[in-house]
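Appendix C reproduces, verbatim, an entry submitted by the partner laboratory led by Prof. M.T., so that reviewers can inspect both the input and the predicted structure.
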Amino acid sequence: MHKIVKAGALALALAAVLAAVTFFTVRTAPPAERAAYAVQVAQTALRQGSRGETVRTVQTKLKRWGYYSGSADGIYGPATERAVRAFQKKNGLAVDGVVGRATFAALGMPASSGSSNSGNGGGSSGGANGYTDADTYLLARCIYGEARGESYTGQVAVGAVVLNRVRSPEFPNTVAGVIYQRHAFTAVSDGQINLTPDETAISAARDAMNGWDPTGGCLYYYNPVTATSEWIFSRETVITIGRHVFAI
């Protein structure tokens, strides 16, 4: 019995020492390292009861995309969980109501560049024109899901429409926000956004991000053979590339 008590006391003492060392190390680290640590902590899983700016950012994104109707108060309550579950279900993620690594990535909030990010195209290191590796990979997934049967120019054109929307005040201001905006892209609605893009789609995404826009600034595209929305036919046509009509 005495041995068990001593072992338990020793374990508690060791835990206290490790906690103190961690606190001291973070507190005395250079500012850049402290910032990186803060990002890592901020991007641990969020669930009911979580609070803070990261929760507020998640709420703001979900509200902008039509999944959440409450206030962005930074408090992860039942309404936020329901919105997260709806987002996860719509985008082929595990529906658990918890914002973990995969859900962060789908929201356009990938883990810091120093950590592993398998399955979503890399970390958040800077890429072309300020876009991240995760942005590039997500755009490639969209291109592959929407236009993999089109010519290379046609695939770049689809990527350019996404980026034109990012820059437009009429749409969300992130790649993830535009792509995951409710009912915006068929590939998201039918789950093809979760397919693995090929090298052609990845290359097309990079070219679009590097400024190639075969559409001349279009915000919309559609296949006139399969389109069912009367509204889309009212948009001004700019150019037709393959089976897609590009419009403003």
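The beta strands are 220-222, 237-241, 244-247. Additional entries are available on request from the coordinating office.
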